[in-house]
Sequence to fold (197 residues):
Amino acid sequence: MMGGLSILILAAGAARRMGKAKMLLPFGNSTILQTIIENAKAINSDTICMVTGYYHHELIASIADEKVRLVYNERWEEGMSGSIKKGLSYLISQSPEMKAVLILVADQPFISSALLNEMIQLQTITNKGIVAASYTGIAGTPVLFTVNHFSSLEKLSGDKGARSILQLYPNDLITVDFPLGDIDIDTQDDYNKLLLK
Fold:
C-alpha cells in the first residue's frame, strides 16, 4: 500500500441544474456524499479533505466527522480548478511529505473503496504518475496524481478540472475501468434514474 496518500473530495459547486445540494440527497442508507466519504475512509490515507463552496453551511451541518477536514473555497464560482488548488494546498500544509493525492467528486455515488484500492495498487505496480477511472471512452474522476504532477495541478485555471493534465501526459497515465463512473447527478431526472439502479 502506498504511503503518503491523501484524499481530496470536491464539493464546492452550486449544482444549479439540480437547484439544491445534490450531494446530500438520500442514497442507500445515508446520502450520496456520506457514501463517498465512507468509501474514502476505508482507504489507508493520511488526510481526507473536502473542499466546500456554495453549500458550505449545509455541508458543515451534515458532515460531523472528525476524519474529514472541511476547507472552504470562497472563490468556488471560478470553477473546479480553484477547489483543486485550495484542497491541494491544504493537504500539503498538513502532510508536507505527501506522495500522492486521490481526487474524488461528490456526485459519483458508485465510487467504492475497492475501486480506490485498485487505483492505488495499480500505481504501485506500474509506477505511473496518473491513475484515472475510465468510463464511456474517457478518463476522469476519481483520479490519482503522484507528487511529480502537483505543480501542474497548482497551475490549473477555470472550470477544466484536472482532465486537461491527463491529456498532457498520456504516457504517464493508466486507467481503471469504472463503468458506473458516468452516473453522476446533475438533474432531478438523473437522480430519479439513480434510485432505479
